[in-house]
Amino acid sequence: MIAIIDSGGANIASVRFALERLGVAGELTADPAVIAAADKVILPGVGAAPVAMAQLEAAGLIECIRGLTQPVLGICLGMQLLFERSQEGDTPLLGLIKGTCRAFDPSAGLTVPHMGWNRLSAVGEAPHPLLSGVDLGAHVYFVHSYAAPVSEDTVASCSYGMDFTALVARGNFMGAQFHPERSGPVGARILGNFLALPQSSDDRLKERLTG
Question: What does the alpha-carbon distance between residue 176 and residue 188 come to, in Å, rounded to a whole number?
């Protein structure tokens, strides 16, 4: 069973449709017991980090998400929520992946938000399972004003005035800054790769954040 956390994000419906196109029915839920029992969990999100964290806290989901051991995929803001902090409102996040999400600087001549198609660059010698079958330089669709830095947990990066994390993985927690549900065949492939992950995978997926 695939649990889609009901975080109030505007992209929830499109995520459900994308799963249906892959032959999978996702269950939209804010029930911690249902989420904890799921085979895989998706955390979608669009909007502001302070609002999203307040919604998760009000639903009693903060510790539930932190304690998950199955594969978890955050999408867009849902990916950012996996990090330690957001510059947006100086908001503490879930703290599952090290780093602070920072705003793009419009004074650098950038249009903010970063919106549209951009290219993925794989990071590291061995491609992460999320990128299986994805061509180098594949285009995916972004809509965001804040971004996470490139770090040791970055699986794929992108450039928009600066390099930032487009795909991240730390143990069983993974995230896509872009919208796979709006990224055509490439996004479908990445979602399919996530759905195909075993409950226990290689050392990189089993490794958990210890501090």
Answer: 12
| Greatest C-alpha distance within the chain | 47
Domain assignment present for 9: yes
Active site residues: 76, 179, 181
pLDDT of 49 reads 95
CATH of the domain at 87: 3.40.50.880
Model pLDDT, residue 210: 32
> What are residue 126's phi and psi, to 5 degrees?
-105, 120
Q: 211 in a domain, yes or no?
A: no
pLDDT of residue 10 exceeding 90, the answer is no
Domain count, the chain: 1
The overall average pLDDT reported for the chain is 91
Domain assignment present for 154: yes
Q: What is the pTM of this model?
A: 0.92
